[in-house]
Amino acid sequence: MIVTTTPTVEGRMATEYLGLVTGEAIMGANIFRDMFAGIRDIVGGRAGAYENVLRGGRDQAISELIEEAQALGADAVIGVAFSYSAIGASDSMLMVAVSGTAVKLA
């Protein structure tokens, strides 16, 4: 499955637009990860635990997008866009959402 942020697939023509496909992942906050991220904020450096959570959420959302596109018989998903949001009480959860257009290619 081709998944791209571009509106076309170079060298291939979209012959049929199958519709919007999406994927979402919501991850809860972890008190220990939050505590160590707070320490990183004070002393500087990257928050590797949060980066791993974001990466995992993004991968999960993309997998859901691909599953939805495959169910429609798509060859590709074009125009893919990502959104990241803090949600829930006190912004205690992170949501990663991805969307795009499922297409058939020539």
Automatic annotation (TrEMBL):
Q: Which organism is it from?
A: Sandarakinorhabdus fusca
Protein name stated in the entry: UPF0145 protein F3168_09770
| Entries under InterPro entries matching the protein | UPF0145_dom_sf (IPR035439), UPF0145_YbjQ-like (IPR002765)
Family the entry assigns: Belongs to the UPF0145 family.
Residue ranges crossing the lipid bilayer per the database entry: none
Q: Which Pfam families match?
A: YbjQ_1
- Signal sequence region: none
